[in-house]
Design brief:
Elements (H helix, E strand, L loop, with lengths): L3 E8 L2 H10 L6 E8 L17 E7 L9 H19 L3 E4 L3 E4 L2 E12 L6 E10 L15 H5 L5 H16 L3 H10 L7 E5 L4 E9 L5 E5 L4 E4 L3 E3 L1
Parallel strand pairs: 1-2
Antiparallel strand pairs: 2-3, 3-7, 4-5, 5-6, 6-7, 8-9, 8-12, 9-10, 10-11
Length: 237
């Protein structure tokens, strides 16, 4: 599988460009990468600070899967980034559910996915995965514990080389099974077996994160003793 990489300088958001390309029929594994974003978007309607030096890209995927299986993509993506940070930089990268990547409990990478489905079936037209990795930037986000590769490794790194490493890892993972991906993800997460607070756009739920189920939802045992499956939200450990 070859990647089709489109480079930009300053953009509003790579998500907007990728969405336009996906709607216009761009191939699977198209990548939109930008040096800076004016309106970088984060999860739960937040902004993503996108100063020069960070790696900002969106990957367009056209997986041949049913809607019920789509959460596998998020596990695959976060695991791919963890593998690269571990193997190339020897960093103890961990995933915080759903897919924040942390090093020493400081966030280094955020992932945002947007999807379009076929109107007449349960299949996916495209799923766009936006990734913001702090590489040579000094992220200063109010009230958040964040870091970058430069802050951790005390040197400038080649962003494009990192991008190609990440894309290669995704290509490897696409051929691996759901079970393997989720079990390796579980070995690299800080969320399971912890007391957590999950904040969704509608509610806040407290409990213990028990497992990931066969659909990729987080299984929570609430403080009231109920089992709940959580599909999305922010997680505070
Ligand atoms: C998060 O909130 O943790 C997700 C952040 C995702 C940021 C990336 S940067 C590239 C892509 N373009 C955007 O506007 N957002 C994503």
């Amino acid at each position: 599988m070859s990647s089709n990489i489109h480079y930009f300088g300053m953009v509003n958001s790579t998500m907007d460009i990728a969405r336009e390309m996906a709607k216009n029929g761009c191939p699977d594994f198209t990548v939109v990468v930008a040096e800076q974003q004016k309106n970088g978007r984060g999860r739960m309607n937040r902004a993503w600070l996108s100063d020069i030096g960070g790696l900002y890209f969106t990957l367009v995927l056209r997986p041949d899967i049913n809607l019920t299986k789509v959460s596998i993509i998020n596990f695959l993506i976060s695991l791919g980034i963890v593998r690269v940070l571990r193997s190339k930089f020897n960093l103890d990268a961990r995933v915080k559910w759903p897919n924040d990547i942390l090093i020493f409990h400081q966030k280094i990478c955020g992932i945002l996915s947007e999807m379009e489905t076929e109107s007449d079936s349960d299949s996916v037209k495209f799923i766009n995965i936006g990734i913001g990795l702090n590489v040579n930037n000094y992220p200063l986000v109010k009230d958040q514990n964040v870091t970058s590769l430069k802050l951790l490794l005390y040197k400038e790194l080649d962003k494009m080389e990192i991008l190609l490493n990440i894309l290669d890892e995704f290509k490897k993972l696409i051929n691996e099974s759901f079970n393997n991906i989720v079990s390796e993800w579980k070995m690299n997460t800080i969320t399971l077996n912890k007391k957590v607070e999950i904040v969704t756009l509608k509610e806040t739920i407290k409990g213990t994160a028990i497992d990931i189920d066969e659909n990729g939802s987080l299984v929570l045992e609430t403080d009231e003793g109920l089992r709940k499956q959580i599909y999305y939200g922010d997680c505070f450990v």
